[in-house]
Amino acid sequence: MRRPMVAGNWKMNGTRSDAGSLLDGVVGGLDASLTCEVVVCPPSILIPVVAEKLAGTSVSWGGQNLDTHDGGAYTGEISGGMLKDFGSTYVIVGHSERRSIYGESDDLVAEKFQQAQKTGLIPILCVGELLEERERGQTESVVGRQLDAVLAVVGIAGLKDTVIAYEPVWAIGTGKTASADQAQEVHKFIRTKLADKDANIANGLRILYGGSVKPDNAAELFANEDVDGGLIGGASLKAQDFLGICNATKNQDLG
Ligand code: PGA
Fold first, then answer.
1. Per the domain annotation, does 253 fall within a domain?
2. Is 37 in the pocket of ligand 1 (CB under 6 A)?
3. CATH number, domain with residue 42
């Protein structure tokens, strides 16, 4: 049985005071009967504030990115060890904005995935196709290629108990969500591809959907067999919306 998960990706948003009031709303409003794991990934400079606020609550936190090195002369970067030092559990790797705006290649993303694990963090690996790739019928080959790059570095054993987020690039921040069927189709492709290598690992892996998830479309997306929760951008910045999405994991049919 996979535990549902909802992770908020705040991207480059928020001040200390915004973070404080957002988290007051989230922690104060969380339904105690929810089995869903709730995670927030703030900008790294806000992690100490978030860590202090969330200590002793059921909500965990993580980074949005990390460097491949342990430390040293890498101006502007943050290491996995630094995220871990502030109590992070997770780190997002390979978000489409990192891939497209900052030119992160599949190979670099795979190295970051490995580095995250080396520093004791659980990577949330983002994969997903561009609109033109979907239109050309290349969704599975693109997602397959992104997964293969990670498998080549860590092997299937390295995916045990990690998290994958399928985020079609055309759905991120656009208000265009993948339909429940489109999401399930790709999630199933991912799980089946990994199950060919190791069925137990594939069945235990949580595959989140990301891309314009809102309280009013979350339940339909999460009802799919292979959709284990969501990676939430815009809607994670409003406590009521984020809570509404967490609540939508109730009655989820997880394998
Ligand atoms: P969105 O972003 O929910 O604002 O579409 C999702 C993401 O980028 O993780």
1. no
2. no
3. 3.20.20.70
Strand partners, 38: 6
Distance CA 175, CA 194 (A): 30
234 ligand 1 Cβ < 6 A:
yes
**pLDDT over 90 (residue 184):** yes
Cα separation, 104 vs 152, whole angstroms = 17
187 catalytically annotated: no
The Cα 120–Cα 233 span in angstroms is 24
Average pLDDT, stretch 155-182? 95
The token duo for 199 is: 């069925």
Please enumerate in sequence order all residues whose Cβ is within 8 A of that of 18, keeping only pairs 6 or more positions apart, or say none: none
Question: Catalytic residue at 129?
Answer: no
- Catalytic pick from 95, 104, 133, 187? 95
Average pLDDT of the chain, as a whole number: 96
Domain containing residue 94: 5-26+35-64+74-247
The residue type found at 105 is: S
Q: To which residue do tokens 């492709």 refer?
A: 189
Kindly name the residue from 37, 111, 129, 167 that is annotated as catalytic: 167
Note whether residue 252 is domain-resident: no
Q: Kindly report the protein residue whose alpha carbon is nearest to atom 9 of ligand 1.
A: 233
> Tokens 């983002």 correspond to what residue?
126
- For the record, the structure tokens of 176 come out as 């265009």
Q: How is residue 72 annotated by DSSP?
A: S
